[in-house]
Amino acid sequence: MNNENNFKVPHIIGIKNMTEDYIQSILDEAFLIKRNPSKYTEELKGKILSLAFWEASTRTRLSFESAILRLGGRTLGFSSQVGTSIEKGESLSDTITMLAGYSDCIVLRHPRRGSAKLAARVADKYGVPVISGGSGSQEHPTQALLDIFTIQEFHHRLSGLNVGIVGDLRYSRTISSLLFALSKFGRNTIYYLSHPSLKLQEELEYDLNSVDLELTKAESLSDMIGDLDVLYVTRLQKERFPDPMLYNKVKGSYQIQKDILKAAKSDLIILHPLPRVDEIPYSVDSLPQAKYFEQAKNGVYTRMALLKKVMKFNLNK
Ligand code: NCD
User: Strand, helix or coil at 13?
Assistant: First the structure.
């Protein structure tokens, strides 16, 4: 089940409180959809999905759009505050109230931690589910779903894996959600590597203490590469750095050069939520281990599966 706080409808706020069964049911459906995506064009016919994006997005917004279109529904929304009444000072909760009246489900991306939960509390009154497309540096649940879908697709399992995570552990919401997701399936070991100023947030580390996940600090990329089944790379989240000087100091600290991958297992997969800046050079794209574009494409199938599940739970419409 995925029902936090006795909500009336199943909002997708984070992975942290989702059960393994709920996650697996979405992945199973997504695998079926990927095999034959054109079979589902009547599923959400007549339904409207709001895409409310306070922050920049390419993949999350457009793959949600592709997903609802492939399910027979339509979208409305905005991709920045520009041109909306948010510029006039309208609050998040009033904006969500409006969208709950105009649509059957709301995907929200917002820079504030806690924003998805607040939006869910508002939209719940109208029986409209909210799906987080990223809330500050806190969580990005649908990204984690497509990440683990891709891991399962290539490794045929979600437990007993060695996963290396490299980049911005402090501000990357995709890493928080991925770690919670992997913790549900058991016996996974995480090797993490970042600049000392970009370590995991204390709150997240605390939460991860009580889950089934082994966390091991790696000293270098070459130290861990030979053990890994998955290498998950993120960009530094420049926009979340409190001090631009710090960004300039740490940028470019980790790059996945082709040479280092020679020591990798033959079935290693390299994932990245994208966009990349300079963490993965273009020369890596042609290696068989580079799966980040397939991963991004999987966003459509996992989001189709999720929309199908969440929007069919909609009580009032
Ligand atoms: C990520 C995000 O917005 O957190 N992007 C995405 O949804 N694929 C990662 C990022 O921006 O670095």
Answer: coil
